[in-house]
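Feature request, filed as a ticket because there's no other form

It would be nice if the structure record came with a short human-readable summary line next to the C-alpha coordinates. Right now we just get the raw output. Example of a typical job, pasted below so the devs can see what we mean:
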Amino acid sequence: MRKSGIFMIMALPLLYAANAFSQSINEKELDEIRSGYVINPSTRAMENILAENHNFKSLAANRKMAGKIDDYFKYSIDVKNITDQKQSGRCWMFTSMNVLRPYVMKKYNLQAFDFSHNYTYFWDIFEKSNLFLENIISTSDKSITDREVTFYFSSPVNDGGVWNLFYNVAEKYGVVPAEVMPETANSNNTSSFIRIINERLRKGGYEIRQLAGKKGSHALMEKEKISVLKDVYRVLALCLGEPPQKFTWRYEDGDKNIKSISTTPMAFYKSLVPKDYDASNYIMIMNDPTRAYYKVYEIENYRNAIEGINWTYLNLPNEDIKDAALASIKGGEIMYASCDVGKQSDTKKGILDPNLYDYNDLFGINLNMDKKARILTRQSGSSHAMAIVACDTDKDDRPVKWEFENSWGPSAGDKGFLVFTDKWFDEYLFRVVINKKYLGEKALKALGQKHIMLPPWDYMF
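Raw output as currently delivered:
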Protein backbone atom coordinates (compact mmCIF):
# COMPACT_ATOMS: atom_id res chain seq x y z
CA MET A 1 0.00 0.00 0.00
CA ARG A 2 2.86 2.36 0.84
CA LYS A 3 4.46 1.83 -2.58
CA SER A 4 1.14 2.38 -4.30
CA GLY A 5 0.64 5.67 -2.45
CA ILE A 6 4.11 6.91 -3.41
CA PHE A 7 3.42 6.06 -7.05
CA MET A 8 0.20 8.06 -6.98
CA ILE A 9 1.93 11.11 -5.45
CA MET A 10 4.68 10.98 -8.09
CA ALA A 11 2.20 10.49 -10.91
CA LEU A 12 0.10 13.56 -10.07
CA PRO A 13 2.67 16.18 -11.23
CA LEU A 14 3.02 14.26 -14.52
CA LEU A 15 -0.74 14.35 -14.98
CA TYR A 16 -0.87 18.08 -14.29
CA ALA A 17 2.05 18.65 -16.69
CA ALA A 18 0.24 16.78 -19.44
CA ASN A 19 -2.91 18.84 -18.88
CA ALA A 20 -0.89 22.08 -19.08
CA PHE A 21 -0.18 21.35 -22.73
CA SER A 22 -3.74 20.42 -23.68
CA GLN A 23 -7.02 22.24 -23.44
CA SER A 24 -10.65 21.95 -24.40
CA ILE A 25 -12.21 24.18 -27.03
CA ASN A 26 -13.15 27.48 -25.35
CA GLU A 27 -15.77 29.97 -26.48
CA LYS A 28 -13.23 32.26 -28.19
CA GLU A 29 -11.80 29.40 -30.25
CA LEU A 30 -15.25 28.14 -31.11
CA ASP A 31 -16.18 31.60 -32.40
CA GLU A 32 -13.06 31.59 -34.55
CA ILE A 33 -13.92 28.14 -35.92
CA ARG A 34 -17.50 29.17 -36.65
CA SER A 35 -16.26 32.24 -38.52
CA GLY A 36 -14.75 29.98 -41.14
CA TYR A 37 -18.21 28.83 -42.19
CA VAL A 38 -19.57 31.80 -44.13
CA ILE A 39 -23.28 31.71 -44.89
CA ASN A 40 -23.95 32.94 -48.41
CA PRO A 41 -26.08 31.79 -51.38
CA SER A 42 -23.34 29.42 -52.55
CA THR A 43 -23.07 27.81 -49.12
CA ARG A 44 -26.84 27.44 -48.86
CA ALA A 45 -26.95 25.79 -52.27
CA MET A 46 -24.24 23.31 -51.29
CA GLU A 47 -26.05 22.57 -48.02
CA ASN A 48 -29.18 21.67 -49.96
CA ILE A 49 -27.24 19.51 -52.42
CA LEU A 50 -25.08 17.61 -49.90
CA ALA A 51 -27.82 17.11 -47.32
CA GLU A 52 -29.87 15.22 -49.92
CA ASN A 53 -27.11 13.37 -51.83
CA HIS A 54 -24.43 11.15 -50.34
CA ASN A 55 -22.98 10.14 -53.73
CA PHE A 56 -20.01 12.46 -53.49
CA LYS A 57 -18.38 10.97 -56.59
CA SER A 58 -21.21 12.13 -58.83
CA LEU A 59 -21.05 15.61 -57.31
CA ALA A 60 -17.25 15.90 -57.44
CA ALA A 61 -16.81 14.43 -60.93
CA ASN A 62 -14.48 16.52 -63.09
CA ARG A 63 -16.47 16.99 -66.30
CA LYS A 64 -13.35 18.17 -68.12
CA MET A 65 -12.08 14.56 -68.00
CA ALA A 66 -15.00 13.25 -70.05
CA GLY A 67 -13.75 11.54 -73.20
CA LYS A 68 -10.10 12.25 -72.39
CA ILE A 69 -9.10 8.61 -71.71
CA ASP A 70 -9.54 6.04 -74.49
CA ASP A 71 -8.90 2.29 -74.45
CA TYR A 72 -6.44 2.03 -77.32
CA PHE A 73 -3.01 0.59 -76.55
CA LYS A 74 0.19 0.42 -78.56
CA TYR A 75 1.42 -2.62 -76.64
CA SER A 76 -0.97 -5.23 -75.25
CA ILE A 77 -1.20 -8.92 -74.44
CA ASP A 78 -4.31 -10.83 -75.44
CA VAL A 79 -6.41 -11.84 -72.42
CA LYS A 80 -9.50 -14.06 -72.56
CA ASN A 81 -12.41 -14.88 -70.21
CA ILE A 82 -12.30 -12.46 -67.26
CA THR A 83 -12.37 -14.12 -63.82
CA ASP A 84 -14.57 -13.24 -60.83
CA GLN A 85 -13.47 -13.50 -57.19
CA LYS A 86 -17.06 -12.86 -55.99
CA GLN A 87 -17.42 -11.89 -52.29
CA SER A 88 -13.94 -12.92 -51.25
CA GLY A 89 -10.62 -11.21 -50.62
CA ARG A 90 -8.70 -13.47 -53.00
CA CYS A 91 -7.66 -10.84 -55.56
CA TRP A 92 -3.97 -11.67 -54.98
CA MET A 93 -4.67 -15.33 -55.75
CA PHE A 94 -6.77 -14.61 -58.83
CA THR A 95 -4.16 -12.19 -60.15
CA SER A 96 -1.30 -14.63 -59.56
CA MET A 97 -3.20 -17.25 -61.54
CA ASN A 98 -4.31 -14.83 -64.23
CA VAL A 99 -0.65 -14.20 -64.97
CA LEU A 100 -0.19 -17.95 -65.57
CA ARG A 101 -3.40 -18.62 -67.53
CA PRO A 102 -1.94 -17.64 -70.94
CA TYR A 103 0.72 -20.37 -70.58
CA VAL A 104 -1.96 -23.02 -70.04
CA MET A 105 -4.08 -21.77 -72.94
CA LYS A 106 -1.11 -21.84 -75.27
CA LYS A 107 0.09 -25.27 -74.10
CA TYR A 108 -3.31 -26.93 -74.53
CA ASN A 109 -4.64 -24.80 -77.43
CA LEU A 110 -7.58 -23.47 -75.41
CA GLN A 111 -10.00 -20.64 -76.07
CA ALA A 112 -10.83 -20.33 -72.38
CA PHE A 113 -9.34 -21.61 -69.15
CA ASP A 114 -9.32 -20.95 -65.44
CA PHE A 115 -7.61 -22.50 -62.46
CA SER A 116 -9.41 -23.80 -59.39
CA HIS A 117 -9.07 -20.94 -56.95
CA ASN A 118 -10.99 -23.06 -54.49
CA TYR A 119 -8.21 -25.67 -54.46
CA THR A 120 -5.48 -23.11 -53.83
CA TYR A 121 -7.62 -21.29 -51.27
CA PHE A 122 -8.12 -24.49 -49.27
CA TRP A 123 -4.37 -24.97 -48.88
CA ASP A 124 -3.72 -21.28 -48.26
CA ILE A 125 -6.08 -21.20 -45.26
CA PHE A 126 -4.81 -24.57 -44.01
CA GLU A 127 -1.19 -23.42 -44.14
CA LYS A 128 -2.05 -20.07 -42.55
CA SER A 129 -3.71 -21.98 -39.71
CA ASN A 130 -0.57 -24.03 -39.11
CA LEU A 131 1.58 -20.88 -39.21
CA PHE A 132 -0.68 -19.19 -36.65
CA LEU A 133 -0.43 -22.14 -34.28
CA GLU A 134 3.35 -22.34 -34.67
CA ASN A 135 3.58 -18.62 -33.94
CA ILE A 136 1.54 -19.15 -30.78
CA ILE A 137 3.88 -21.97 -29.73
CA SER A 138 7.00 -19.88 -30.40
CA THR A 139 5.63 -16.95 -28.36
CA SER A 140 4.10 -19.00 -25.55
CA ASP A 141 6.68 -17.61 -23.09
CA LYS A 142 5.47 -14.04 -23.73
CA SER A 143 2.54 -12.29 -22.09
CA ILE A 144 -0.77 -12.65 -23.89
CA THR A 145 -0.84 -8.84 -23.99
CA ASP A 146 2.53 -8.68 -25.77
CA ARG A 147 2.20 -6.80 -29.07
CA GLU A 148 3.35 -9.76 -31.17
CA VAL A 149 0.96 -12.18 -29.42
CA THR A 150 -2.02 -9.82 -29.71
CA PHE A 151 -1.18 -9.29 -33.38
CA TYR A 152 -1.46 -13.03 -34.04
CA PHE A 153 -4.69 -13.46 -32.08
CA SER A 154 -6.31 -10.38 -33.69
CA SER A 155 -6.66 -12.19 -37.03
CA PRO A 156 -5.43 -15.81 -37.03
CA VAL A 157 -6.29 -16.29 -40.72
CA ASN A 158 -7.94 -14.20 -43.44
CA ASP A 159 -8.34 -14.02 -47.21
CA GLY A 160 -5.67 -11.39 -47.71
CA GLY A 161 -2.29 -11.93 -49.25
CA VAL A 162 0.23 -11.11 -51.92
CA TRP A 163 1.98 -13.04 -54.68
CA ASN A 164 4.45 -14.86 -52.42
CA LEU A 165 1.53 -16.63 -50.69
CA PHE A 166 0.33 -18.06 -54.00
CA TYR A 167 3.88 -19.07 -54.85
CA ASN A 168 4.31 -20.85 -51.50
CA VAL A 169 1.11 -22.88 -51.89
CA ALA A 170 1.64 -23.69 -55.57
CA GLU A 171 5.19 -24.86 -54.94
CA LYS A 172 3.96 -27.20 -52.19
CA TYR A 173 0.56 -28.40 -53.45
CA GLY A 174 0.48 -27.56 -57.16
CA VAL A 175 -2.63 -26.30 -58.96
CA VAL A 176 -5.64 -27.83 -60.75
CA PRO A 177 -8.13 -26.67 -63.41
CA ALA A 178 -11.36 -25.06 -62.25
CA GLU A 179 -13.45 -28.07 -63.27
CA VAL A 180 -11.48 -30.40 -60.99
CA MET A 181 -12.39 -28.55 -57.79
CA PRO A 182 -15.15 -26.01 -58.56
CA GLU A 183 -16.08 -23.02 -56.44
CA THR A 184 -18.62 -23.47 -53.64
CA ALA A 185 -20.96 -21.04 -51.91
CA ASN A 186 -18.35 -20.62 -49.18
CA SER A 187 -15.35 -20.08 -51.45
CA ASN A 188 -17.31 -17.35 -53.22
CA ASN A 189 -18.45 -15.78 -49.94
CA THR A 190 -15.85 -16.52 -47.32
CA SER A 191 -16.74 -14.51 -44.22
CA SER A 192 -18.94 -17.07 -42.43
CA PHE A 193 -16.69 -20.11 -42.42
CA ILE A 194 -13.53 -18.04 -41.85
CA ARG A 195 -15.19 -16.76 -38.69
CA ILE A 196 -15.68 -20.37 -37.52
CA ILE A 197 -12.08 -21.28 -38.31
CA ASN A 198 -10.75 -18.24 -36.45
CA GLU A 199 -12.86 -19.11 -33.43
CA ARG A 200 -11.39 -22.63 -33.39
CA LEU A 201 -7.86 -21.29 -33.88
CA ARG A 202 -8.18 -18.79 -31.04
CA LYS A 203 -9.51 -21.53 -28.75
CA GLY A 204 -6.68 -23.84 -29.79
CA GLY A 205 -4.12 -21.07 -29.45
CA TYR A 206 -5.29 -20.29 -25.93
CA GLU A 207 -5.17 -23.97 -24.92
CA ILE A 208 -1.66 -24.30 -26.38
CA ARG A 209 -0.50 -21.36 -24.26
CA GLN A 210 -1.94 -23.08 -21.16
CA LEU A 211 0.45 -25.99 -21.78
CA ALA A 212 3.54 -23.78 -21.77
CA GLY A 213 5.96 -24.49 -18.92
CA LYS A 214 4.61 -27.95 -18.19
CA LYS A 215 6.81 -31.02 -18.35
CA GLY A 216 7.23 -32.01 -22.00
CA SER A 217 5.34 -28.87 -22.97
CA HIS A 218 6.68 -28.64 -26.53
CA ALA A 219 5.48 -32.15 -27.42
CA LEU A 220 2.13 -31.43 -25.75
CA MET A 221 1.74 -28.17 -27.69
CA GLU A 222 2.57 -29.84 -31.01
CA LYS A 223 0.04 -32.60 -30.23
CA GLU A 224 -2.61 -30.00 -29.51
CA LYS A 225 -1.70 -28.21 -32.75
CA ILE A 226 -2.41 -31.37 -34.77
CA SER A 227 -5.75 -31.74 -32.99
CA VAL A 228 -6.69 -28.19 -33.96
CA LEU A 229 -5.55 -28.68 -37.56
CA LYS A 230 -7.75 -31.77 -37.84
CA ASP A 231 -10.74 -29.57 -37.03
CA VAL A 232 -9.57 -26.86 -39.44
CA TYR A 233 -9.20 -29.44 -42.21
CA ARG A 234 -12.69 -30.75 -41.43
CA VAL A 235 -14.29 -27.30 -41.67
CA LEU A 236 -12.41 -26.57 -44.91
CA ALA A 237 -13.41 -29.90 -46.45
CA LEU A 238 -17.07 -29.47 -45.45
CA CYS A 239 -17.23 -25.92 -46.86
CA LEU A 240 -14.90 -26.14 -49.86
CA GLY A 241 -14.65 -29.86 -50.64
CA GLU A 242 -11.58 -32.05 -50.16
CA PRO A 243 -8.69 -31.35 -52.54
CA PRO A 244 -7.79 -34.14 -54.98
CA GLN A 245 -4.39 -35.85 -54.81
CA LYS A 246 -4.76 -37.03 -58.41
CA PHE A 247 -7.19 -35.96 -61.10
CA THR A 248 -8.35 -36.53 -64.67
CA TRP A 249 -9.16 -33.40 -66.65
CA ARG A 250 -11.19 -33.48 -69.87
CA TYR A 251 -11.19 -30.44 -72.12
CA GLU A 252 -11.98 -29.28 -75.65
CA ASP A 253 -9.13 -27.60 -77.52
CA GLY A 254 -9.35 -24.82 -80.10
CA ASP A 255 -9.80 -27.36 -82.90
CA LYS A 256 -12.84 -28.91 -81.21
CA ASN A 257 -10.94 -32.04 -80.17
CA ILE A 258 -11.95 -33.65 -76.87
CA LYS A 259 -8.89 -34.60 -74.86
CA SER A 260 -8.03 -35.64 -71.33
CA ILE A 261 -5.02 -35.89 -69.06
CA SER A 262 -4.52 -37.78 -65.80
CA THR A 263 -1.98 -36.26 -63.49
CA THR A 264 -1.30 -34.78 -60.06
CA PRO A 265 -1.69 -31.14 -58.99
CA MET A 266 2.08 -30.75 -58.66
CA ALA A 267 2.88 -32.34 -62.01
CA PHE A 268 0.26 -30.13 -63.68
CA TYR A 269 1.76 -27.02 -62.09
CA LYS A 270 5.32 -27.86 -63.07
CA SER A 271 4.27 -28.63 -66.64
CA LEU A 272 2.82 -25.19 -67.31
CA VAL A 273 4.92 -22.55 -65.48
CA PRO A 274 7.93 -21.02 -67.25
CA LYS A 275 11.23 -22.78 -66.54
CA ASP A 276 12.54 -19.75 -64.67
CA TYR A 277 9.36 -19.28 -62.59
CA ASP A 278 10.81 -19.16 -59.10
CA ALA A 279 11.43 -16.64 -56.36
CA SER A 280 15.00 -16.01 -57.46
CA ASN A 281 13.87 -14.78 -60.89
CA TYR A 282 10.42 -13.28 -60.28
CA ILE A 283 10.87 -10.26 -58.04
CA MET A 284 8.40 -7.98 -56.30
CA ILE A 285 9.30 -4.34 -56.91
CA MET A 286 7.57 -1.52 -55.10
CA ASN A 287 7.30 2.23 -55.00
CA ASP A 288 7.37 3.29 -51.35
CA PRO A 289 8.60 6.91 -51.06
CA THR A 290 8.69 6.64 -47.27
CA ARG A 291 11.81 4.48 -47.46
CA ALA A 292 15.16 4.50 -49.25
CA TYR A 293 15.14 3.32 -52.85
CA TYR A 294 17.35 0.51 -54.17
CA LYS A 295 16.99 -1.35 -50.88
CA VAL A 296 15.42 -4.78 -50.33
CA TYR A 297 12.79 -5.01 -47.59
CA GLU A 298 11.28 -8.13 -46.07
CA ILE A 299 8.13 -8.35 -43.95
CA GLU A 300 8.79 -10.55 -40.95
CA ASN A 301 6.60 -13.65 -40.83
CA TYR A 302 4.43 -12.47 -43.76
CA ARG A 303 3.87 -15.79 -45.44
CA ASN A 304 1.40 -18.66 -45.21
CA ALA A 305 3.61 -21.76 -45.08
CA ILE A 306 6.27 -22.18 -42.37
CA GLU A 307 8.84 -23.18 -44.99
CA GLY A 308 7.66 -20.59 -47.51
CA ILE A 309 9.22 -17.28 -48.47
CA ASN A 310 8.27 -14.03 -46.74
CA TRP A 311 6.85 -11.05 -48.54
CA THR A 312 9.99 -9.37 -49.93
CA TYR A 313 10.33 -6.39 -52.24
CA LEU A 314 12.90 -4.16 -53.89
CA ASN A 315 11.99 -0.49 -53.44
CA LEU A 316 12.39 1.51 -56.66
CA PRO A 317 11.48 4.93 -58.07
CA ASN A 318 8.39 4.94 -60.28
CA GLU A 319 10.41 5.54 -63.44
CA ASP A 320 12.43 2.35 -62.90
CA ILE A 321 9.25 0.37 -62.34
CA LYS A 322 7.64 1.81 -65.48
CA ASP A 323 10.68 1.00 -67.62
CA ALA A 324 10.65 -2.59 -66.38
CA ALA A 325 6.87 -2.96 -66.74
CA LEU A 326 6.90 -1.64 -70.31
CA ALA A 327 9.74 -4.01 -71.16
CA SER A 328 7.72 -6.89 -69.73
CA ILE A 329 4.65 -6.01 -71.81
CA LYS A 330 6.82 -5.78 -74.91
CA GLY A 331 8.28 -9.16 -73.95
CA GLY A 332 4.81 -10.72 -73.85
CA GLU A 333 4.59 -11.15 -70.06
CA ILE A 334 1.72 -9.73 -68.06
CA MET A 335 2.44 -8.82 -64.43
CA TYR A 336 0.92 -9.16 -61.00
CA ALA A 337 0.37 -5.66 -59.58
CA SER A 338 -1.34 -4.13 -56.55
CA CYS A 339 -2.70 -0.65 -56.00
CA ASP A 340 -5.11 1.58 -54.11
CA VAL A 341 -7.97 0.93 -56.51
CA GLY A 342 -10.56 2.96 -54.57
CA LYS A 343 -8.78 6.29 -55.06
CA GLN A 344 -9.75 8.54 -57.98
CA SER A 345 -11.37 5.63 -59.82
CA ASP A 346 -14.56 5.23 -61.82
CA THR A 347 -14.82 1.44 -61.78
CA LYS A 348 -18.15 1.51 -63.63
CA LYS A 349 -16.59 3.17 -66.67
CA GLY A 350 -13.27 1.47 -66.04
CA ILE A 351 -11.00 4.54 -65.80
CA LEU A 352 -8.58 5.77 -63.12
CA ASP A 353 -6.90 9.18 -63.05
CA PRO A 354 -5.85 11.56 -60.21
CA ASN A 355 -8.09 14.30 -61.64
CA LEU A 356 -11.34 12.34 -61.95
CA TYR A 357 -12.90 13.90 -58.84
CA ASP A 358 -12.43 17.28 -57.20
CA TYR A 359 -13.45 17.00 -53.55
CA ASN A 360 -11.54 20.18 -52.69
CA ASP A 361 -13.91 22.36 -54.69
CA LEU A 362 -16.97 20.39 -53.66
CA PHE A 363 -16.38 21.02 -49.95
CA GLY A 364 -14.18 24.09 -50.13
CA ILE A 365 -11.34 22.40 -48.23
CA ASN A 366 -7.80 21.23 -49.04
CA LEU A 367 -7.27 17.45 -49.04
CA ASN A 368 -4.00 17.44 -50.99
CA MET A 369 -1.24 15.13 -49.74
CA ASP A 370 1.67 13.59 -51.59
CA LYS A 371 2.12 9.81 -51.81
CA LYS A 372 4.54 9.70 -48.88
CA ALA A 373 2.16 11.57 -46.56
CA ARG A 374 -0.80 9.41 -47.63
CA ILE A 375 1.14 6.24 -46.81
CA LEU A 376 2.41 7.42 -43.44
CA THR A 377 -1.05 8.58 -42.35
CA ARG A 378 -2.74 5.39 -43.63
CA GLN A 379 -4.77 7.45 -46.07
CA SER A 380 -3.49 5.30 -48.92
CA GLY A 381 -2.19 1.77 -49.26
CA SER A 382 -2.52 -1.25 -51.47
CA SER A 383 -6.10 -2.53 -51.44
CA HIS A 384 -6.41 -4.69 -54.55
CA ALA A 385 -4.33 -6.83 -56.90
CA MET A 386 -4.78 -6.94 -60.69
CA ALA A 387 -2.67 -7.88 -63.70
CA ILE A 388 -1.06 -5.25 -65.93
CA VAL A 389 -1.73 -6.35 -69.51
CA ALA A 390 -1.17 -3.28 -71.73
CA CYS A 391 0.62 0.04 -72.10
CA ASP A 392 0.11 2.97 -74.44
CA THR A 393 3.02 5.32 -75.16
CA ASP A 394 3.64 8.72 -76.75
CA LYS A 395 5.80 9.57 -79.76
CA ASP A 396 8.93 9.14 -77.61
CA ASP A 397 7.71 5.71 -76.45
CA ARG A 398 7.09 6.94 -72.90
CA PRO A 399 4.01 5.56 -71.07
CA VAL A 400 0.79 7.53 -71.25
CA LYS A 401 -1.65 4.99 -69.83
CA TRP A 402 -1.86 1.35 -68.77
CA GLU A 403 -4.49 -1.37 -68.48
CA PHE A 404 -5.44 -3.78 -65.71
CA GLU A 405 -7.08 -7.18 -66.11
CA ASN A 406 -9.39 -7.26 -63.11
CA SER A 407 -11.04 -10.17 -61.27
CA TRP A 408 -14.47 -8.65 -60.57
CA GLY A 409 -16.18 -10.34 -63.51
CA PRO A 410 -16.82 -9.07 -67.07
CA SER A 411 -19.54 -6.61 -66.01
CA ALA A 412 -17.15 -4.49 -63.93
CA GLY A 413 -15.26 -1.69 -65.67
CA ASP A 414 -14.81 -1.96 -69.44
CA LYS A 415 -15.70 -5.65 -69.88
CA GLY A 416 -13.54 -6.54 -66.90
CA PHE A 417 -10.65 -4.17 -67.66
CA LEU A 418 -9.58 -0.89 -66.04
CA VAL A 419 -7.59 1.81 -67.83
CA PHE A 420 -5.30 3.90 -65.62
CA THR A 421 -3.26 6.89 -66.65
CA ASP A 422 0.47 7.22 -66.08
CA LYS A 423 -0.22 9.94 -63.51
CA TRP A 424 -2.45 7.53 -61.56
CA PHE A 425 0.40 4.98 -61.74
CA ASP A 426 2.64 7.51 -59.96
CA GLU A 427 0.19 8.12 -57.13
CA TYR A 428 -1.63 4.88 -56.46
CA LEU A 429 0.26 1.91 -57.88
CA PHE A 430 2.50 0.22 -55.32
CA ARG A 431 3.76 -3.22 -56.30
CA VAL A 432 4.61 -5.27 -59.38
CA VAL A 433 5.93 -8.82 -59.64
CA ILE A 434 8.25 -9.02 -62.62
CA ASN A 435 10.90 -11.22 -64.18
CA LYS A 436 14.18 -9.68 -63.06
CA LYS A 437 15.52 -9.83 -66.62
CA TYR A 438 13.46 -6.69 -67.29
CA LEU A 439 15.08 -4.69 -64.48
CA GLY A 440 17.78 -2.07 -65.03
CA GLU A 441 21.39 -2.61 -64.02
CA LYS A 442 21.14 -0.53 -60.82
CA ALA A 443 18.05 -2.44 -59.66
CA LEU A 444 19.66 -5.81 -60.40
CA LYS A 445 22.72 -4.86 -58.40
CA ALA A 446 20.53 -3.81 -55.46
CA LEU A 447 18.95 -7.27 -55.27
CA GLY A 448 22.15 -8.66 -53.79
CA GLN A 449 21.87 -6.62 -50.58
CA LYS A 450 21.01 -7.96 -47.17
CA HIS A 451 17.27 -7.63 -46.56
CA ILE A 452 16.00 -4.96 -44.17
CA MET A 453 13.48 -6.72 -41.91
CA LEU A 454 10.20 -4.93 -41.15
CA PRO A 455 7.62 -6.00 -38.53
CA PRO A 456 4.38 -7.67 -39.72
CA TRP A 457 2.36 -4.67 -38.42
CA ASP A 458 4.39 -2.15 -40.43
CA TYR A 459 2.35 0.84 -41.65
CA MET A 460 2.63 -0.15 -45.30
CA PHE A 461 1.10 -3.57 -44.74
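Something like this underneath would help us a lot:
The domain at 103-270 is CATH 3.90.70.10 (Cathepsin B; Chain A).
Residues 4 and 207 are 34 Å apart (CA to CA).
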